[in-house]
Amino acid sequence: MKKMCKILWEDLQEQKRLETDNMTSVKLPFFGRKERIFLPQIKNKKHFKLSFNTSKFRASKDHLPLRVIQITRKRPEWRTEEEVKFVQSCLQEIESYQSYSLRLQFLLAKVIRFEWFERGRVILKKGHCSISFYFIYFGSVALTDDEDGSSIFTALYPVVLQKGAKFGEDSLLKGTRRVATVVCMEDTKLFVVDKDDFFAHKLDEELQEELCCRYNFIKGVNFFAKWSKRSIVTITNSCKMEKFHYGQVITKDITNSDSIILISKGTCEILRLVDLTACLSYHKWVHQQLMYLSKISPCLTRKTGAVGRKRFEDFLRKSFPVQVLTNLKARDLKCNMSQGGQNVNRHPTAARAKRINQKLEKQQIGGRFR
Ligand SMILES: Nc1ncnc2c1ncn2[C@@H]1O[C@@H]2COP(=O)(O)O[C@H]2[C@H]1O
């Protein structure tokens, strides 16, 4: 609101100035500062109309809700659970933060605070004691070996950490000194976790426990059996835990993914679409199955009058267990039902699809014996 008033006031001042300069005699398409308030074609003074340039008020990429800043200014014990959850949801923008378990994310959101540094500002110095660690919400920082960080803007290939990264955690956990100087490459928004809060809220224990669990799990996977301890520790520190609920698609196309997925708990199905239209043995097999089907229920082929392809598709649909192809079936069902003029949810859940499917199958069976 303040911003809006300020812009209006500035532009009204501009209008007055232009009016005194006999602006009406000059054809000026813009009124005031053109990027702020736009005045459509001034022809008649009576039709002066102020209109807002909405792009000026659109949330920018680095936008952080004011409420988050207000909450993180409070002492950890004064933050309510709802506030902490709100901060946690906003911090999902930060990739390195996402790598923690939900429990740790919550604990971090309880103690985290916001800081903003301008370009060129040294955040921490090499050799100093570690008192906090940082998440980059927006901007970038560079690492250097010299204590004052002066070489950063002249170095050819500085190590740069971008939005989403974190730094300073290792020395805080190990109680060692800083191994590098960190300088802002641009105006940078950071979330900071202080050592005192970190240990007071037993985040170190939580973190160690989580890392230990991850390490043991990764070590137990056959694929990593021959990997060195150091490599496994590196993976442990860089991997991220994610939870998926029943029926949720983990990834649509794993071949395009740049990560590998390890299942620590539960099961998932991997569906592969294979084009068998040119495969003779497959057609032979289908033919055999259809022959068999027509033997055990001859009315099916005679009564439906369906063409081979339709019968084949029906057969395929029924030949897989319901839970295996729930999603495909749901899609198929949606299509079938909308053709029949029935009203179906746009995204039926797996359970619902299963129920509808069973109902349909029952109807079909009933139909066959009528
Ligand atoms: N090569 C690197 N790549 C990424 N981060 C680094 C690298 N070297 C140092 N850091 C980070 O920079 C931080 C400097 O302070 P710390 O030693 O506390 O922790 C360090 C790491 O988090």
TrEMBL record:
<keyword id="KW-0963">Cytoplasm</keyword>
<feature type="domain" description="Cyclic nucleotide-binding">
    <location>
        <begin position="108"/>
        <end position="198"/>
    </location>
</feature>
<dbReference type="GO" id="GO:0007283">
    <property type="term" value="P:spermatogenesis"/>
</dbReference>
<dbReference type="GO" id="GO:0005829">
    <property type="term" value="C:cytosol"/>
</dbReference>
<dbReference type="InterPro" id="IPR014710">
    <property type="entry name" value="RmlC-like_jellyroll"/>
</dbReference>
<keyword id="KW-0547">Nucleotide-binding</keyword>
<keyword id="KW-0116">cAMP-binding</keyword>
<comment type="function">
    <text>Essential for male fertility. Plays an important role in spermatogenesis and regulates sperm motility by controlling the development of the flagellar bending of sperm.</text>
</comment>
<dbReference type="Pfam" id="PF00027">
    <property type="entry name" value="cNMP_binding"/>
</dbReference>
<dbReference type="InterPro" id="IPR000595">
    <property type="entry name" value="cNMP-bd_dom"/>
</dbReference>
<dbReference type="GO" id="GO:0030552">
    <property type="term" value="F:cAMP binding"/>
</dbReference>
<protein>
    <recommendedName>
        <fullName>Cyclic nucleotide-binding domain-containing protein 2</fullName>
    </recommendedName>
</protein>
<dbReference type="InterPro" id="IPR018490">
    <property type="entry name" value="cNMP-bd_dom_sf"/>
</dbReference>
<keyword id="KW-0114">cAMP</keyword>
